[in-house]
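Q: Hi! First time asking for a complex rather than a single chain. Here are the components, and I think there are two in total. Is that enough to go on?
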Amino acid sequence: MVIERIDNDLCTGCGICVNSCPMDVIRMDEESKKAVIKYPEDCMLCLYCEYDCPVHAIYVSPVKAAPVVLPWG
Amino acid sequence: MAEEKVIETGVLVIGGGMAGSFAAIKARELGCDVTLVDKGYIGKSGATHFAGGDFMVFTPEWGHNLNAWKDQFNTRCEYLNNRKWCEIVLEESYERYQDLLSWGIKLYQEGNNVLVGRAGVTEYVSMVYREYTPILRKKALETGVRLLDRIMISELLKQEGKVVGAVGFHTIDGNLYVFKAKVTVIAAGGASLKEGNRPIHYATSDGEAMAYRAGAEITGKEFKFGSAGRSRAVLMAKKEGSEVGEFQVKDGWARFPAFRGGLVGPMVKPTFNAEGGPVFSAVWEAHCGREPLYVDLDAYTPEQRSEYQRQFNRMGTRELDKLGIDIFEGGKLKFSAGSIETAQPIGGGASGIWPIDDNCATSLPGLYAAGDSCATMLSGAGYAGLGSALCHAAVTGTRAGLGAAHYALKTKQVKINQEELNKIKNIVLTPIQRKGGFSPSWVTQLLQNIIVPYFILHIKQGERLRAALTLVEFLNSHLVPKLKAEDPHGWRTAEETKNMALHAELMLRASIFRTESRGSHFREDYPRRDDPKWLVWLKIHQEENEVKILKEPVPKEWWPDLSKPYEERYPIMFPGE
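A: Yes, that's all I need. Here is the structure of the assembled complex.
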């Protein structure tokens, strides 16, 4: 659910996704120098990280963090 | 180990979207030292970037008739729109549009011409999605504005009744930031409760909340997105019978192009209920137990399908593709309106900090407001129309920036009283220094549970509102002061929760106070518009921890013709009328 995967092999460490995320979900790992999902619980499924990654390393699942229960079922 | 950084500046602009960028650029062009600060990354964060890019433009050159546009505002906004601001925004929209073009903003084209969209009589251009905010960032940098990303401002600094700066923190390294400014512009966006349907979780009422805590007046809290009188109050839709493989989930609703959130776009409205009857007000259908609601895409006319297709092609269908849904295949869409949005404002200047003059100065000397943070009441009780929000942001941003610059040029830097500064610093540091406390996410969930069901802020009623207010007051007095942040990221979450709790309380208070229905404020117990008694705006402020609500009358010249029958003044009927 939410942002699920940043492919470590594809990631070049460019940092674009870190700036693209309005909710500060993604951070640069100091050791690997690559992007990591740090706070997935704050992901709001805007998909900017996925759109902006130049090497398509990011996958965001369409399932929200909090399950939505509908009023009618 | 967190450090304290002190930054002295002439004009401090809080929020780096359309309004903040215009304010910063215009102030800098007058020669001021300008600092633009944002809790996210300027150019990629915030509602400006998310909005889709529609920008209302009024110009007689395109055959526009000012009176026709003003009439549309007056009716749609149910006479609570500030007509002075309507004129200002419309008349300055073209200059701001020219500014954007000169800065390199690209627009969607239709052949060789700029694509112009229409909503009733008003028209708008469309900036290429997600490409315009990076250009605003670039222009601000080129103009010499000092840009600071990832710094969340928590409290304003006041001295002798004037705003002299602000205190915040860096959301990654946790350093404390003290800004000493001659003048401050709040352009920190609108409000919501991080509800599920729209990806606007950064809109947490930050600007309005810090201004309220400093003593400013807040307006328009009884109005919000969605109306009980129309079928637009939908939250989520799902393609019925769709086979979507591993993505067939009960709660992963098709979020059609990102900026539309859970809405299926303005063209797709539910047209019949579970009993096969017509739908005029989606939320009323929910209230009467007639959900789910449906629209039958097969019944769409070719014109409707092609307009619908055009909207989607503009924004992309990545979310639909993810769910394996082809919306144009036809079939039925199922809707639910039982949970509502608390997003504010809804179309430019419908809620936020009350401006006391045409330059967007607030009642606090040294404080200006712009964009979604500024309640010019352009949208009154309704919605000024597609493209009004970004246009309003550019116009108010410019006026606030110029106003603030003039103020700064004739003001000396104030020496900050250390005791006052320490008091504010302690308030700001509380969540990160606490040993124990409440989780901000948990308190946010409590707020959502109380407020989001439709029968609190959508189909309002006095006793339910008061019940909700009792709980929210407790949240504010007991839980919010004990929010705990685990790290600088959590510190931002704690701040946002604090601000959302205030947003919820003010929405409830304003809704209780206005004993009539109008625009997006509908009360079951007062289901009619009550002219002229309620041709007023409500201004809320706090004085020595007491909440005060004052009525600001709408000028008589702006009243509807009271000799006309009610149905003529208000063509949209509320449920039960």
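A: Residues 3-60 of chain A form a domain with the Alpha-Beta Plaits fold (CATH 3.30.70.20). Let me know if you'd like any chain examined more closely.
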